[in-house]
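Box S2. Input/output pair 1.
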Amino acid sequence: MQNGHTKSLSLTAPSSWNPCGSAPACPSSISAVCPHFCAPQIPASLQPLSCTCSWTHTQPSEAALANKLPQKPPHFAAIPGVHPWHSHGVCFRHTEEIDFPTTSLILHIAAGSRWVAVSKLPVSHFTERPKLPDNYTQDTWQKLHEAVGAIQSSISIKYNLEELYQAVENLCSYKVSATLYKQLRQVCEEHVKAQILQFREYPFVMHSLDSLLFLKKINKCWQDHCRQMIMIRSIFLFLDRTYVLQNSVLPSIWDMGLELFRNHIISDKQVQTKTIDGILLLIERERNGEAVDRSLLRSLLSMLSDLQVYKESFEQRFLEETNCLYAAEGQRLMQEREVPEYLHHVNKRLEEEGDRVITYLDHSTQKPLIACVEKQLLGEHLSAILQKGLDSLLDENRISDLTQTYQLFSRVKGGQQILLQHWSEYIKNFGTTIVVNPEKDKDMVQELLDFKDKVDHIIEVCFQKNEKFINLMKESFETFINKRPNKPAELIAKYVDSKLRAGNKEATDEELERILDKIMIIFRFIHGKDVFEAFYKKDLAKRLLVGKSASVDAEKSMLSKLKHECGAAFTSKLEGMFKDMELSKDVMVQFKQYMQNQSDPGNIDLTVNILTMGYWPTYTPMEVHLNSEMIKLQEVFKTFYLGKHSGRKLQWQTTLGHAVLKAEFKEGKKEFQVSLFQTLVLLMFNEGDEFSFEEIKMATGVEDSELRRTLQSLACGKARVLIKNPKGKDVEDGDKFIFNDDFKHKLFRIKINQIQMKETAEEQVSTTERVFQDRQYQIDAAIVRIMKMRKTLGHNLLVSELYNQLKFPVKPGDLKKRIESLIDRDYMERDKDNPNQYHYVA
C-alpha cells in the first residue's frame, strides 16, 4: 500500500535513560539507514515503561532521499568512548530494517499501570530503500582495509574515525555484514600469521639474557596485538553490536583477535615452549633472591590467562617445578637448620608465594601453589620437626616460635593432630619427672603450679585457646600426677597448710586466694582425694587448736572450694571442726561467768576447746603429771561441763595444750608462750636451780622422745631459758639442766617453739593406713548397696558398677578381696552352678 497504511511498534527504553535532561530538537524525519528518534522531555516523576508508536504513510521523492543521506548527522554514540544512548531526553533506537509508511507518530508513555501522556509527532518516511551508489561496497571496504592496515603497521589513518564508523554502519544496514566480518577476519589472520616468523627464527637457549629478550619480544607482540584489536573494534563496533551479537556462533571481534593470536602464535609448540621456559626461569631466579621484571611476568601470565591456555600450558609445569624445588629444599634445610630457623623460612616462603599470586600469578593458582609449599616444607616433615625441636621450644618457653609452630601446623592436614600428640607426650614426660622423683618432694607442688601456669600461658597465647589442647592438657596432667599414688595428695595438703598457717607473709589476701584457686586446679587431677582429706584434716586441726591459722576467712574459703569440688560429704567433718571451735568459745564465756561465782577462782586463766571425736584426727592420749593447781582447774571445768551435758565423756589431750608463763630474771620480767610439756619442765625450776634428765622425766611423766624435744627447745634453741651441761645439740641421758638467770631478750613476750619433729615414715604410713581402712569400709558399703538393689549380679558387672561409684583408685585384686570378705561374713553368696555369679543374702 502506498497510502493509509498504519503500523504499530513497541519499544523499550534503555536502562541508562535520563528523564531529567533536556531533550534536543528531534529530526523532522527518520532515516531509513539508521532510524533514531528522540521523545520530548518527560517529567522526572514519570518513568517510561513502554511506548507504542503509530504512524501513517507518505512517500518522499528520490531526490529528497539522496539529499538526506550525505547530510545525515553522525551518531557519536557509536564512536568508542561515547555511550550509545543520548545523554539528554528519552532516546529510543531501532536497528531493524523496516519500511516506514507513516506521516505522523503518536507516542504513548506508560508510568506504572496507566497511560499518562500522549504526544503526536509529524514524521516523513520512505516507501522504498534507496540504492547505494555503484562500487560503494568495494570502495568502502578498501577504505576500511587501508585503515586496518594502518593500525596494524602503527601508522596514522588518513580517514576520519567517524567517517569509518559511519561506513561500517552503512554497510551493515545493507546486509553486507557477513561479508564484512569475513573480510575483516581474513585481514587480521594474515597479519597474525606474519608475526610468527620472527619468533620461530629467534635464537633461544636456557640463558637468562636470551630468555629475557625473547619474553620482552613476545610481550611487545601481544601488547601491540591488543592495542590494534581495540582500535579495529572501535571502527567496526556497529558490526560487533549488531551482526555478531545476533549470531551466537560467531566470536566477537575481540574474541576473534584472541582466537587468532592463540591459534597462530601461542599454540605454536616452539613459541609456547620458549615462552613458558622463560617465565619459569624468571620465577626461579626470583625465588633464588634475584630481582626480576615483575610487570613483564604479570603481562605474560595475563596473556596466557586471556588466551585460555594458562592452566594447560603454564600452571601444570609451574606446580611440578615448584613441587620439586621445595621437596629438595625441605630435605636440605631440615638437616642444616634448627627448628625455629626452619619454621621462619617456611613462613617466609609462604608469604613470598602468596605475594606472587597477588602480583602476577592467576588467582586460581593460589590454592594448589600454597598447598604444594605446605606439603613439601611442612607436611613431609611434621614428625621430624616436632621430634627435633618442640621439647626445646617448650622448655625455653619460646612463645613467638611456638605461636608460629601452631599457625603453620594448623595449615596442614593432620598437622594439629600430630602437634597434639607431641604436646601431650611432653606434658606427661615433664610432669612425671616432677612427681616420681622423691628428691623433689619438697618443691613438688610449687613446681606443678609453675608448670601449670606455663602450659596455660602457652595455650592462651600460642594455641589460641584451642579446646583440644586444653582438654588434652587436663588428661595429661591427670595421667602423670597419679603415677605415684597418694604422695601428690599428701604434699598438696601440706602445701595448703604452709600457705594458710600464721606467719606466712608471702602473700596478701588477694594473692592467697589466687594461690588457693591454682591449688584447687591441681587438686582436681588427683584420684585419691581421701588421702588429701586425711592430711588436710590433721594440719587443719593443728592450725585451729594452736591458733596458727593465718585467716579464718581464708580457711573458710578453702573449705568452700573443697565443698564445691567434692560435695558436702567430703567437707562435713572439716566443717564440724570449725563448728566445735565456735561452740567452745560460747562454752568458755559461760565457764568464766561460772568461775566468777566460785569462792576460790584461782590464779590460772583456763581455756578449753571441746572437740567432737568423730570430726577430729585421732590423738593418742598421754598421761602426764600436772601440778595440783592445774588438776584442780580440770576438775572444776569437768564438773561445770558435765553439769550442763550429762552423759558425755571428757578425755584431756595433753599433747595439744599450751600456756603463757611469767618469769623473773636479773634483767627483769618476761613472758613465755610455751606448750604444756614445756610448762611442766619450767615449773620444776621453781623448786630448784638444777635437775638431771632422769629427774625431769620422773617428775613430769612426759614420754621419752617428747621430753627430749621439749628440753632441746628450752636449752638449745634461740631462747635458751635453761643451760644444758654438757653443751650440745642433742639431749642425752645424764645431761643436767640449770636455770639461766642471766637470760636476755629484746622482747617482753617470747614464743618458744617446740622443736618440730619431722614426720616419720611410721606416721605417714599410719595416716595412709587409716585412709586405706576407710576405703575398705567404703568398698564394702558400695558392694552391699549394689547387691541389695540387684539381688543377683555377675562378677564383671559388679566390678564395673563399683568403679562407677567409688571416687578413689582401686585395684581389681583389692575389690576381689572385699567381695571374698563379704561372702565370708554372709552378706552375699556364690551361685552353686556359676562361681562368677553372686546372690545377695538378706
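Box S3. Input/output pair 2.
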Amino acid sequence: MLVVKERLFHPLLLSPKPRLIYRGSRANIHDETENMALKGTKTYPCCFKDRSHEELVSCVGWTTADELYSCSEDHQILKWNLLSSETSLVVKLPEEIYPIDLHWFPKTVGVKKQTQAEVFVLTSSDGKFHLVSKIGRIEKSVEAHNGAVLAGRWNYDGTALITAGEDGQIKIWSKSGMLRSTLTSQGSPVYSVAWGPDSDRILYTSGKQLVIKPLQPSAKVLQWKAHDGIILKVDWNSVNDFILSGAEDCKYKVWDSFGRLLYSSSSHDYPVTSVSWAPDGEVFAMGSFNTLRLCDKTGWSYALEKPNTGSVFTISWSADGTQLAGACGNGHVIFAHVVEQHWEWKNFVVTLTKRRTMQVRNVTNDAVDILEFRDRVIKASLAYGHLVVATSLQCYVYNSRNWNTPLIFELKEGTVSLIQQAEKHFLLVDGAGLYMFSYEGQLISSPKFPGMRADILNAQGVSLSNDTIAIRDKRDEKVILLFDALTGKALSDGKPLTHKLEVVEIALDQCGPSTERKIALIDKNRDLYLTSVRHLGREPKICKIGSMVHSMAWNDTANILCGIQDSQFTVWYYPSAVFTDKELLPKTLYIKDGSEFSRAPHILSYVGTMVTLRQGDGSLVYSSVPPYSTVLHEYSTSARWEDALRLCRFAKDQSLWACLAAMSLANRELTTAEMAYAAIGELPRVQYIKRIKEQPSKESSLAHMLLFSGQVKEAEATLLQAGLIYRAIQVNIDLFNWERALELAVKHKTHVDTVLAYREKFLKKFGRKETNKRFLQYAEGVEVDWEKIQAKIEMELSKEREKAANASVRSSVAARR
C-alpha cells in the first residue's frame, strides 16, 4: 500500500496531532469547554436543544450515521439528530425497566440491505430483554436471566441474539426471541460478550479471565487470564480479528484471536469502563472516568480527551466509522468525530482539517490547496498521482497536477470501508461489494465470489495491480482468490491459489506484463513466499524467500520487495531470482540493521527509494534504499544489457551483480549472465552457461536453462516436444533418475541399451549389484555394446545439429522475403 495515514504528533514529524472533536449533550457544559481549551481542542457547548437525560446514561446506538438513540436510568429513550441538533423523546419506559445495554438489529441480513435499523434489543436489570421498534414500541419482552441482563448482542447476519447475565449464564436466542441454547453457566457475572467474526465463536468475560467458546459442542474452549482486575468490557472486530478488553485494573489490552497479547496499556487513574472497535478495525476508542481515548489497532494512542462526563459506560461507532458516541455517568451523551488524519505521497501531504474539508500541501514549494466536500469524508487514499476521496454519497478523484477540477461520481453504497490504488485504476470496497474504477470514473468491473462478505475485507487481505485483483478468502484463509481486474472474472479457470497454511497478508507486484505477475504472501508462521499469478494450468510453484517476516511492501516503480524480517529491514532486489537460481537469492538482498527502529515496526509504503515505517509507539520513520536496483530493473525491462553491465561496474556492489545474473538468465541473455556470474565468483555456473551456449539447437539450450533453474519436468517436456528423445533420456541419466530414463527409452523404443549401459557403469563404480527387477528384466534381452551406443549418440547429435541448421536457414530466408 502506498497510503500513509498520519494521525499523531512526534518529534520526528512536525504535524498537527489528530484529535476527537466532540460535543456534549447539554447546554450547561461550560466547565467542559474551559478544560478542553487547555488541550487546544474545539468543542460545541450548545449543540443540542429541547431535551436531555436526568440520570446516568447506560447505553447508546446509531440508527444511521446522523441519528442516535440513548437510554438512561431516567427511563427515557431519546433520539439525537446530528443534522438538526435536535433531541426528541422516543418513549418513556415503564418504571420497573432500568436499561443496561442496547444493540440495533444489523442493517445487512444476507444479501438484503436496509437503509436503517428498524428494531433493537434492550436489556434491563429485571432479568428481561426487550425487542423495541424504532418508534419505541416494545414488541416483545422475554424473561432471560435471574438478575440483570448485562449484555445483549445480535450476530453479524441477524440470525441469532446472545445475552449475558448477572447469573453467570450465556444464552442464545432466535431472531424472534425463542431460546435456542444455554451456552455456558458460571459462578460469576458475565459483564460483556461479543460474537466472533464468522458468528461461530463467542467471547465473554469470566472475572479476570477471557473465554472464547466455539458454538460446536466438541470444539476446544480457549481461556486465559487477561487482567489483574474484573474485566468489564470486550469487543471483537470482524475485519482485523483482534480482541479488545478493559478492566478494573485500569488497563486496556489488545489480543489476537489465539489469546496472544499484542498490546497492554499503562495503568490509568480509573477502571476502563468501555472499549469499542471502529467498523474498519483500524482504530478503537476507550472510555473511563472523565476520559475518552482514540487508539490505533496496535494499541498506541492517537488522542486523549478529558471531558467532564463521569464514567463513559458505552461507546458506539457510526457505521461509516467517522464518529462515535458515548453514554456518560453524569447524564451526558458525548459525540466525537476524528479529524486531522494525514495521507502522504512523494511531495504532497493531505490533511483532513474538518469533516468536509481537506488541505493539500506541496512541501517543495509550500503551495496549499483547500478541498471542500458536500458531505463528510469517510475514506481517502493518495497514491500514483491521484487522491481518491469517498464521502457518504459521492467519490471524488483528484489529479495531483490539478487540484481544482475533481472528477465526481455518485456512490451506490455510502459506507466505503477500503480504497486500494494501482497505477491505472482503483478499487472501492463497501458493504455491498467490490468495484473497480478507472481514474476517469468509469466502472471497469465488479468481481464476485461465493460467500463474499465485503464488509470484513481489509488492506492485508486485498491487493491490486494494473491487471489483477487478489483477495484472501475469509472462509478458508489458506485460499487466495485471483481475478482479472479488467473483466472481474476469476483467473486460472476459476481455480484459486491454495497455500499449505493460513495466509496473513498478500501483496501483488506492480510492474511488468500481466503474464509475469507475482504475488507475495506471509503465512501464519511468518514465512514469506512468492508465486506466479498466472500459471497456465500447471500447479503453481510457491517458493519461500524469507522467514520471520512481519510486514512487507512492493515498490511502486520496480518489482522490488521490502520487509521487516525478524530484527532486520530487508530488501529483495530481485525476488523472482528464486525461480531462475534459488541459490542466488540470498546474494540479491540488501539488509539494514533494525536497531534504528523501535519494537514491531510496520511498513506503510515503498515509493521511489523511500520506505515509510510506523513504529510500535506510533511514530513515523523513513528509511532510504540505494537507487541502483531500480535503475537495473529499468535496464533489464528495456533489454539494455550493456548499460546494466556499466551500472554494475560503477556501483561495485555484489548484490547488483547477482541481480543482473538472475535477470539476464531469466531473459535468456547468456553472455550477460556469464559475465555477471563471473563477477560474483560463481565459476561452476559460468561453465554451465558455456555448455548451454554450445548446445546444437535452441530446444536443447532452453531445456538446459530450465535445468539450471531446477525445472526438470519442464526441461524434459521441452525436449520431448521437439522430438529430442535421446536428449530427454540423457537428462534423466545425468540426474540419476534411472527408472524415468528407462521408462522413456522403452516407451519410444530407442536407447534402451544406452540406459542399461550407463546404469551398469554407475553400479560398477560404487561396487553395487543390480537389484531393480525392471532393469534385470531388460538386461537379459538387450546386449550392451559401448561402441554401438557411442555411434548412436553421435548420430543423434549430428541429426540435431542438422535440424537446427535447416531451421536457421528457413528463418533467414523467411526474413529476407
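Caption for Box S3: The radius of gyration is 33 Å. The longest strand covers residues 402-410.
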